[in-house]
Amino acid sequence: MKNNHSRRKFAIWFVCLMTITLFPTAAFADVPYRTFTKDSYGRTIMTQPAYAPKGVIARDIPTLNQQGEVSYTPLQRPQDLFIDRQDHIYIADTDNNRIIHLDPSGELIRIITLPESPLNQPQGVFVTENGDLFIADTGNKRVVHTDKGGRLVQELKRPKSSFMNDQFVYEPTNMVVDKRGFIYVVSKGSYNGIIEFDPEGNFLKFFGTNKTEVNLMDKIRRQFYTKEQLSRQVRLLPVTIRNIEIDDQGFIYTVSGSKSEQVKKLNIRGEDLWKEKDIDFDKNKAYRRTSSEQIEPQLTDVSVDQNGNILMIDKSRNIISQYDENGELLFYWSGSSTTGNSLIGLTKAPTAVATNSRNEVFILDEALNLVQVYKPTEFGSTVQAAYKFMQDGKYLEGEKYWTKVLKLNAHFSPAFQGIAQAAFYREDYELARDMFKLAGDEGGFSDSFWQLRLVWFQKNFSIFANVLIVLAVLIWILGLLKRKYKFRILPKTTLLDRQRWYQQFKHVFYILKHPIDGFGDLRYRQKGSYISALILLILTLVMILVKTFYSSFTFNPVPDYEKGASSMLIIFMSVWLSWVVCNYLIGSIRQGEARFKDVFMGSSYALFPVVLFGLPLALISNGLTLSEASIYHSIEWAMLLWSGLLFFWNIQAMQNYGVGETVVNILLTGVTMMILWIMIFILVGLSSEFSNFIYTIYQEVSM
Amino acid sequence: MRLFRSKKLLLSVTACIISVLTIVGFIFAASGSDSQSKQQSAEQSSEPSTAQQAKVKPASVKVAAAGTPVASGLPDERTFKPLVENQRLQLKVDASTGHFLVVNKQTGDVWRSFPNPKNWKEKSNTAAWKDHLASPFMFRYVEFNIRKDLLKESNLIAQKGTVSQFEVTEHGFKIQYELPELGFSIPVEVTLGDDFVETKVLSEGLKDERVYTAEELKTKKKDPLARLVSIRLFPFLGAQTSDEEDGFLLIPDGSGALIDFKKYRAGTQNLYTERVYGDDWAYSNRNIMSERKAIKMPVFGIKSANQAMVGVIREGDDYANVVAAPSGSFSQYNWATAEFEYRFKFFQPTDTKKKNGYLMYSKEITKSDRSVRYYFIDQPEVDYAQMADRYRQYLIDEQGLKPLQGKNADMKLQLHVLGADTEIGFLWDSYLPLTTTAEAKEIVQELGALGVDDMSITYLGWQNGGFSKFGGAFPVGSKIGGNEGMQQFIDFAHTSGFPVYLDASSYTFNNTGKDGFRVKRDGLRDLGSSVIEFNSWDDQRTTFVSPKFMQKVIQDDLQDAKDLMVDGYMYGQGVGNQLNTDYNENHKVSREESMHIQQEIMNQTKQSLGNVQVADGNLYTLPYVNHMHNMFASNSYDLFVDRAIPFAQMVLHGLVTYSFDYANLSDDYEESFLKGIEYGAVPSYIVTYAKPQELLKSLHLDRFYSTYYKDWIQEIVSQYQRYTEALGDVQGEFIVNHRELAHGVFETTYAHGKRIIVNYNETPYNLDTQHVVKARDFIVIKGGA
C-alpha cells in the first residue's frame, strides 16, 4: 500500500517535470536544469538555481609524446576528484593509470604516474594539508603515500591481522587522512567497514561498519530454519561502503548503497550522528527520465563545503543535492544529459564531487570524462550564509540574510524558520508565531504562543479575575432565584417540539444517559427514524470539518492548501457506510435482530460524542500550547472512547446480543469490511486491466 | 481546339522543335567521350543567355550521362561551366552532379556547393563520409518492412544515384536525381539572385516509392517499403576545414551561438541538430523532447577568412532542422546546413496508460517545397555583425518587417501584473485574488510618482478563473474588479499614456470545459489519435486546444476585449511559441496550417485591437508584434559551443523591442541586468499586490517566487532609469557591431555610433585613458560627436 502510494507520488513528480517544460508562460531559466527544494511540509517547490554552470575542465589532458608533439588524451573512466586547500584539483584518471594535477583554473600542472612503481587503475586520491599524496592504487591492491614531489614514501598493503579472515578482499578504492595522520581506507566490496591505519601504516581496527539489513522474511527464516538450512542460505552481510569524505572538524562521511544508512556522519569513535534522524536522502525527488520506469538511486559521493553544507551526487538519477550539516535538504537539481548532447551543467554518470574555497562545485563524470564546474548564484550563496549563521546560533546576524533570501524567493520556507527564530530571540513573539506557522514548525509556534499567552495573562489578569468573580456571583444568584421562583432559563420551543423528527433527535440525549435502554427504544419503540439519523450524521460531518478547520495550528499542523475537506469526508463516509452494511449482514446471519434501518440509526446515534465534543475541542485547542497537549489529547481520547462504547452498546441492544456475541460480531464485521474493500479494489483493478487489454488488442490489430 | 485558333500554336511548335533538337543533341553527345560531354556543357551554358534574349521558356533536356551513377570524389572545379550571372555573382555548374560554384565577379571569391578541396585529407574522413562530403545531398530513409523506427543515412553517391534530367532555367537550373535501388527521385532547383543562391527541393516530382514488378518480387523476397525521411541538400555548401582556424559556424541556438574552427576539439560526436520552431507535441507524447532551447529563427551561417555565408530557410521552415557539426566530428569539415523532414518519429502506445508501445515513423509523407537561401558576404573583417545585418535586411525586404518608428521606439518598462488564480479550498476551490484592478492602479501610480514615466502594462491571470484556469476567459474575474474594474484601470492607464495588454497565451489550453470545449471533440490529438493532456500538481487535467477551435474562441472573445479598450493581446505558448500538428479529425491541421492559423489570429487581433505582443515568439510572428517578451538571453550550453552571442538581438534591435525573463525572477538579478544592457533589451518585471505567501495557496504559481511589488519597487525604478540612460535613445536603432574586448567585457555599437561597454568581471576594466568600466558595471560612450 505504501509502495503504491509512493509510486503514485513519483508519477506525479514525473508528470510535473513534464509540465514544467510546458506550463510557465515565461521562457526557460537560463541554466539547463531546474532546481527544487522542499517546503516545510515536504512539498516540492521550484527555486531559482542555487548553482549556475560555470564551465568544464579536464576535457583533454595535453601530454608530450616521444616526438615532442603535444597530443591530447581525454580522461578515461575517472573515479575520484580531490581539491586541496590551495584549490588545486587532483583527478584519479583510473583507466589511464594516472593522477592528474590541475591548478585552480583547470590548467595542467603535472601528471603523476609513479614511474618507480607504476599505478594500476587508481580509483582514489587524497592530499593532506602539507601536500602529501595518498593514492588508492586499486589494481595493485595497495594505498600509496607519496610526498609533495611525488616520491614514494609508504605503501599500505593488505594488513596482516587476526581480524581479517581469508575471504577479506583488500582492494582500496578511496581513503581519507585525518589531522592526526590516521588513514581510513575504503576497500571494494568490504562489508567490514572502513579499514583504519595509524600514521605508521599499522592496522588499527574496522571503523563505521554498516548494520546488516534484515527483512521480515529473514527474521521468519531465522525462527524456523535449522542450523543446516541457515548455513545453506546466502549469508546476510552488511552493506558495503562505497565512498568516504572528511570535513574540517574531522567528521567522516561514508556513502553506502543501503536503504537506511545511505550517508553516515561519523565522529572519531565511529558513531553516526545522523542515526536518530533516519534521513531518506532520495525521497520523492523529481528527476528527468526518458522512460516510465523508475530508476534506483545510487549515491556515489559526498563533499562538505566551506559552510559545512553537504553535497551529494546520485549517479543513476543524476541528482545533485545539498543538505545542511544537520541533514536538512537545501536544494537539489537533476540535470541528466541525453545521449548525443552534452551540455555544460548536465551530467551523465557523476562519480565524484568536490568543492573549493569559493564554494564552487566540481563534479567528475565518468561517462563524459570531464569535470563540470558550478558556481553558487546570488541566491545560493545567500542561503548558505544564512544557514551558517543559523547553525552557529547567531540568529540575529542571520536575519538579514534570511530577509534577502525571502526577497529573492518568497516561497523558500526555511527562511521563515530563520526569521522566526530571530524574532523569537528578540522577543517579537507575534512575528515569531506567524513565521513559525509559515515554516510549518508547530513546536516553535506553540512556544511563541506560550509566551504571548503569558504576556496576555499578565496584562489582563486583574480584569480576568474580576470577570470570573462577577460571573461566579451572578450564576450563584441566578441559581438562588431559580430555586425560589422555578422559572425556565430557556423558553420551551413548542414549535420544534411538535416536529416528530425533533423528538426523535432529542432521544440521543436519553441514549447518552441510558445507552442500552436508549438503543433498545430506537429499535422497539420507534424513537428514531432515517431523518433523525441523517441529521446526526450530517452534524457529525460538520463537526469533523469544524474541528479540522478551527483547531489551532499547534494541534493540526497542516498548511492551508492541504486542508482540503473532500477527501476526508469521502474516507469517513465510505468507512461508515461499509461498516453499516457489513454490520447488518453479519448481524442477519448471526441471529441478530436488527433491521438495516436499526443498524443505520444506531451507527449514527453512536457518533453523537463527536458532535458534542468537536467544537469545544477545537475552541480550547486555540488556547493551549504543546505543554498542555495532554489535556487536549485526553479529551480527544475520551470522545473517541465514548463513541466506541456507544457502538458496542448499540450492537448489544439492537441485535439482542450478550457481551461475548457482541465482541465476535464486531470482529467479524471488521473482517467483512476488509473483504469488501479488497473485492472493490480487485474489481476496479481488473476492469481497468480488462479495458486496457481490449485497447491493446485494438491497437495491435488496427496498426 | 482553341489552341489551333490562337497564336499559341506557333509558339508551342517552336518550343517543341527546340526541345527535340536539344534532346537529339544530348543523345548524340552521350555516345561521345568525356571531353565531348564537357564541350556539351559549354554549349549548354551559352544557351540560357540566348533563351533569355528570346524570352522563350528554356527547354527541358535529358542529361548526357543519364543512367550512369554519379562518380565519387569531390567534383573537379575546372570542369564547371558558367551558367548564369548577374552584376555581382556568377553561377558555374557541373551538370553531371548538380554541384555548383558561385563566383564573386569583383573579388574572385568562390563559394562551393561542396567542401573546400583545399585541405582535403584522405585519411581524415571515413569512406562513408567521403561519399557524404562529395554528394550533392544526403538523405535518411526508413524501411517500414524491416524496422519501423530505424533510420538509414545515405547519399547520392553511395546509392549509385544518377542525374536523369538537367534543365537550365532563367536564373539557374533544375536537376532531377534518381536513386534506382530505392526508387526515389528528387527534383532540385537552384537559382541565382543578386547576392544569394537559392536551393530548393521541389515537391512536384518528388517520389519515394519503388514499384516492384512481379518478377522482381519473385527474385527478391519482399518490398522493404523504403520511404524518405529527410534530405540535406548541399549540406557542405561553404564547408571549411579548421586548418586555418579563421572562422566559425553560426547556429540559431538560444540567442545565437558560434562554434569556432578549431584544429583540435574534444569529442568526436559533436552535432547540433534542432527542429526549427521547436518540437511538435503531436509526435512527442513520450518524453523525447529536446533539452536545447528551441530555434526561433531558421537561420545559420559559416564564416571563414574574409567570406561569410548566411543560410536562411525560406520555404518549409516549419519542417526543417538546422544541423551543424564542427571539424573532427564525423569529418574534417566544419559544416552547417538545413535538413528537410518528410516523415516524423512518434510513439505509438499500445495500452491505455500509454506506457508500452513502439516508436515508428509516420506513414504519410509531408510534401511541400523546401528551400534555403544562401546570402554571400565577402569583405575584409567580416564577422557575425555583418551576418546579422544581412539577415535583418532579408527580414525587412522579404518578411515585411519595418524599422521601429515614433512612439514604438520608446523605452517602456514592461510591467506584468499577476491578477489572480484559483486556490484549493476547504470544501471547494476558491478564487484567489492577487492584484485587483484598483490595486494595479495603485502600483502604477506609485511607479509613476517614483519616476517611471513610460511603461507598458500586461495583465496576467485576468481571465475568469485566474492564472491556472484555461477556457472561459471573459468576463474578467469579478473579485479583481470584473470587466468594469478592468475598463477603469485601462482608462486610467490611458490617461497617463500607458498601453495595457492582456495575456492571451491561456487560449492554448483548456481545463474548465468552458467556451463549449469538449476534450474528446476539440482537444489537440497526436498522431496516435490520443488527446494530449497534462496533469498538474493537483491532478487537474489540462488539454491542448485544437488550433482551429482556439481560433474560433479567440475570434469570439475579441469583441469583449475591444469593449474594454485593451491595447492588445500578449500571445505565447500555442500562439506564436509552439507549433503543433493536430490529428483531431474535427479540426485537422498540418504544422504548416497551424502556423498560418497562428498568423491569422495575430493578424485579426491586430486588426481588431491595434497591437499584438508575443512571449518568446517564433519568426513568423514578428510581422505582427511590436514587442517580444521573455526572449532567450543565452544559449543551450552545448559543450562544443565556443561563444554565445546576441545574434537574434542584433537582428531584431530596431525592428521590435524585446525584453528577457522577468528581472525579479531571474536566475541572477545583477547578471541579468548587465546582460539586458549588453543585449539592448527593455526591463521587465512581474508584480503582485498580494504578499508572496498568498501565492503559495495556489499550486500553480510556484514559479513566481518573488513578486511582491513593495519588495521590488525601488529596484524597478532604478533599473528603469539606468536602462533609459543607456538604451533610451537607441531603441529604434540597429546594432551595427558587437564584440568581446577582453574576457568578460563586451561592446555593443549602435547605428549612430553610441557604444555600450559592459564588464562582467569582478575587476575594473580600463578601456582607454579616459574610460574605466567598473567591476560588474557598464559605461555608455556617446557616438557621432
Short description:
The complex is a heterodimer of chains A (703) and B (785). Chain A has 703 residues and is an alpha+beta fold. Chain A folds into 3 domains: 7-376, 6 Propeller (Neuraminidase), CATH 2.120.10; 378-489, Serine Threonine Protein Phosphatase 5, Tetratricopeptide repeat (Alpha Horseshoe); 496-687, no CATH class.
Describe the structure.
With 703 residues, chain A is α+β, with helices and mostly antiparallel strands. Chain A is built from 17 helices and 27 strands. Chain A folds into 3 domains: 7-376, TolB, C-terminal domain (Neuraminidase); 378-489, Serine Threonine Protein Phosphatase 5, Tetratricopeptide repeat, CATH 1.25.40; 496-687, no CATH class. In chain A, the strands form 7 sheets. Chain A has a 6-stranded antiparallel sheet with strand order 2-1-24-23-22-21, with no helix packed on it. In chain A, strands 3-27-26-25 form a 4-stranded antiparallel sheet. A 4-stranded antiparallel sheet of chain A has the order 6-7-8-9, with no helix packed on it. Helices cover 23% and strands 28% of the residues of chain B. In chain B, α8 (482-495) links the parallel β27 (455-460) and β28. The longest helix of chain B has 23 residues, at 8-30. Chain B is globular and about 80 Å long. At the A-B interface, α1, β2, β3, α5 and α17 of A face α13 and α14 of B.
